[in-house]
Amino acid sequence: MCAARVLEHIYAAIKERIMDEFWPQGTRLDPIKIADMLFSSITPVREALRRLESEQMVAYVSGEGFYVPRIDEAELRHLFEHHQNLILAAIESSKDSSAISADGAYPVRVSKTFLQLGNRTANRELIEAISRLNDRLHPLRRCDSQLIEDVDSELEDIVAAANDAPKGARLRRLVIGYHDRRIAKAAEYIRLMTSELD
Predict the structure, then answer these.
(1) Separation between Cα atoms, residue 98 and residue 55, nearest integer Å
(2) Deepest in the core among 21, 39, 67, 189, taking most CB within 10 A?
(3) What string of DSSP letters covers 71-96?
(4) Whole-angstrom distance, CA of residue 34 vs CA of residue 45
């Protein structure tokens, strides 16, 4: 396997574990242990961790190493607000009305739905920003059903509105409502994520 493929494989494996909370927030990511776990040399692991650091999926503390970052309540609110702004920008700049559909587990369906809204634009930067933020929010979306009522029907309503009127006011209202509900529960998300570490 060529070096680029090895790096891509290691990057994807580490990212997937972070998104699935294999390593909880605050966990130190030891490149040697990860290399052993993934049957790899240490160089592609370090390169993958640096790449994930640039995407804010991993934090680096000088003299201490790499960590899964901790998110506090204020930062979580900012992430939800930023995600809302990106999705509203995608709706506003939509170039086509290709059908939105998503399958899989709930957190995956949410990411796919919002990424498909982004893909309706011709703006690669916007699409990439939505994709990266979806990845960062993935672990929190795993908590949605514990904190928010009717998450499945909420998502179905967004998909239906997106397919009915790609730039419609109803879609914008639903997207704002989706994010407002989560912003209001930011403290509860943090408590839930923290309690899972205990």
Answers:
(1) 28
(2) 189
(3) --HHHHHHHHHHHHHHHHHHHHT---
(4) 7
Report phi then psi at 66, rounded to 5: -95, 145
Total-model pTM: 0.89
CA atoms of 116 and 131, how far apart (whole Å)? 10
139 pLDDT higher than 60: yes
CB under 8 Å to 140, separation ≥6 — which residues? 71, 76, 182, 189, 193
Cβ-based neighbour number of residue 195 at 10 Å: 8
SS (H, E, C) 122-166: CCHHHHHHHHHHHHHHHHHHCCHHHHCCCHHHHHHHHHHHHHHCC
Question: Would you place residue 111 in the very low, low, confident or very high pLDDT band (cuts 50, 70, 90)?
Answer: very high
Could you tell me if 51 and 14 are in contact, meaning their C-beta atoms sit under 8 angstroms apart? no
Pairwise CA distance, residues 86 & 30, whole Å: 34
- 8 Å CB contact between 120 and 98: yes
CA torsion, ordered 106, 108, 114, 120, to nearest 10 deg: -130
56 is written with which tokens? Answer: 């804010």
Show the tokens assigned to 49. 């961790």
